[in-house]
Amino acid sequence: MFRKKLIVSVLLVTATAAVLAQAAENRKPPQIPQEAYDACASASEQDSCAMSGREGETVEGVCMAPPPDADSDELACRPNNMGGGDRRPPPRDDD
């Protein structure tokens, strides 16, 4: 009886791992919008750039090479608000 439960458990774990691995393979990187490429068309890497955001707002950023899995090797505008920097809150003014 114990052996049967062990076999079923191992099969379930193996099947779950296979499904998760397949899902990870099918995941696509986020697409870089054409506006990001256009904003850096005549710029150099690390130049400042600006483009229209999804809701029409102006988004400022820096021209950077896209990640290796991107569809293009052109420079693209990476918004300043993408994170990865200092995420500490600003100091409080305790006057």
Low-confidence stretches are none
Tally of helical segments: 2
Task: Based on Cα principal axes, name the global outline.
Answer: elongated
Proportion in β-strands: 15-25%
The largest beta-sheet arranges its strands as 1-2-3
Decide which structural class fits the backbone: alpha+beta
Average pLDDT: 79
H and E string: HHEEE
First-last Cα distance: 72 Å
Radius of gyration: 23 Å
Instruction: Please provide the count of β strands.
Output: 3
Largest sheet: 3 strands, antiparallel
Helix content: 25-40%
Region (Disordered): 51-95
Biased composition (Basic and acidic residues): 85-95
Signal peptide: 1-23
Keywords: Signal
Textual characterization of the structure:
Residues 51-95 are annotated as: Disordered. The chain is an alpha+beta fold. The chain has a domain at 31-81. It is built from 2 helices and 3 strands; from the N terminus they run ααβββ. The chain has helices at residues 2-26, 34-39; strands at 48-52, 58-64, 76-79. The chain has a 3-stranded antiparallel beta sheet. The longest helix has 25 residues, at 2-26. The termini are far apart. The mean pLDDT is 79.
What does this entry show, briefly?
The protein is an alpha+beta fold and 95 residues long. Helices cover 33% and strands 17% of the residues.
Strand and helix map with partners:
Blueprint: H1 2-26, H2 34-39, E1 48-52, E2 58-64, E3 76-79
Antiparallel strand pairs: 1-2, 2-3
What key attributes describe this structure?
95 residues; alpha+beta; signal
